[in-house]
């Protein structure tokens, strides 16, 4: 019989200590601190002048019209970006799933937008969309004799442009995820349906799409979470403007925390934001487990 070595068992647990210390210090401690801060009127500029105010920050956040406006903007941004990314992603994935020359090169090129840092993407598109010397307005004028609009300065255009920039950067992620799912599917059901005279649309809708349902839900879940916490691209593109037309909730939290220095209030907004995202994602996870074959 194999005997247990007490010293070896003790060593195994000791090896976990550095990881647990880092985990606690980098995640749990900030969470607890932000929760406690949200219950006070703490300001970073007045660290010694604070008091416990209970849920007043949360009540204030729920009644704040600026927060409501930012939340609506966030919902529009997330819904628009993720919907377009999914539609384009599945269409491009179906196209790239076919055998054709140069398909490997095309797949590699798809990675480029996703590999760029969000700040670089925002700055690049800000220059491209510049009203006076942006290349997009230049070619609109040179080729079509059209005076290009102020893409990032007009209230009606700013949010669609921000959404399209996010779509440009993150559609490749959706494409690659769905393409991997398509290539993992068995060809037997498709071949059987083809022999029975099913059309391409019928095979996609009744065979391919149901088999991809779990992968689709995971991809949508990841993109929704990521889109909800978007900050870099929007900040570098529009800084939340014009006015507050593209001010997402993440930008609003930043302004409250680092412009008005209301740290306690910013923490309360962040916790409300976290709760909302958790409620939305929990529904996706519940649906995912419901649809996953046992």
Automatic annotation (TrEMBL):
Domain ABC transmembrane type-1: 71-284
Keyword terms of this UniProt record: Cell membrane, Membrane, Transmembrane, Transmembrane helix, Transport
Keyword set includes Transport: yes
One GO term of the biological process aspect: transmembrane transport
Pfam families: BPD_transp_1 (PF00528)
Compartments, as annotated in UniProt: Cell membrane
Gene Ontology, cellular component aspect: plasma membrane
TM stretches of this protein: 12-33, 75-96, 108-128, 157-182, 203-225, 268-289
UniProt cross-references to PROSITE patterns, sorted A to Z: ABC_TM1 (PS50928)
Membrane topology: Multi-pass membrane protein
InterPro entries: MetI-like, MetI-like_sf
UniProt entry tagged with the keyword Cell membrane: yes
Similarity field: Belongs to the binding-protein-dependent transport system permease family.
Protein's name in the database: Sugar ABC transporter permease
């Amino acid at each position: 019989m194999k005997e247990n070595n007490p010293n070896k068992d003790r060593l195994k647990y000791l090896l976990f200590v550095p990881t647990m210390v880092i985990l606690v210090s980098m995640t749990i401690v900030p969470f607890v601190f932000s929760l406690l801060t949200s219950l006070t009127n703490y300001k970073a500029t007045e660290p010694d002048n604070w008091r416990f105010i209970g849920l007043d920050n949360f009540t204030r956040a729920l009644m704040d019209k600026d927060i409501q406006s930012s939340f609506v903007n966030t919902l529009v941004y997330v819904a628009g970006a993720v919907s377009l990314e999914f539609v384009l992603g599945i269409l491009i994935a179906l196209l790239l799933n076919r055998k054709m020359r140069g398909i490997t090169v095309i797949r590699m090129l798809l990675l480029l937008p996703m590999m760029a840092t969000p700040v670089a993407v925002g700055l690049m598109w800000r220059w491209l969309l510049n009203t006076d010397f942006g290349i997009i307005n230049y070619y609109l004028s040179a080729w079509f004799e059209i005076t290009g609009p102020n893409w990032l300065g007009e209230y009606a255009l700013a949010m669609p442009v921000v959404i399209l920039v996010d779509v440009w950067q993150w559609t490749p992620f959706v494409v690659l995820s769905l393409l991997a799912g398509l290539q993992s599917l068995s060809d037997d059901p498709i071949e059987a349906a083809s022999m029975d005279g099913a059309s391409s649309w019928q095979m996609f809708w009744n065979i391919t799409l149901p088999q991809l349902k779990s992968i689709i839900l995971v991809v949508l879940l990841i993109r929704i979470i990521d889109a909800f916490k978007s900050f870099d691209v929007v900040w570098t593109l529009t800084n939340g403007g014009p006015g507050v037309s593209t001010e997402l909730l993440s930008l609003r939290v930043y302004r409250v925390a680092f412009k008005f220095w209301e740290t306690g209030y910013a923490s309360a907004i962040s916790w409300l934001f976290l709760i909302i995202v958790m409620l939305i994602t929990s529904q996706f996870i519940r649906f995912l487990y419901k649809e996953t074959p046992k």
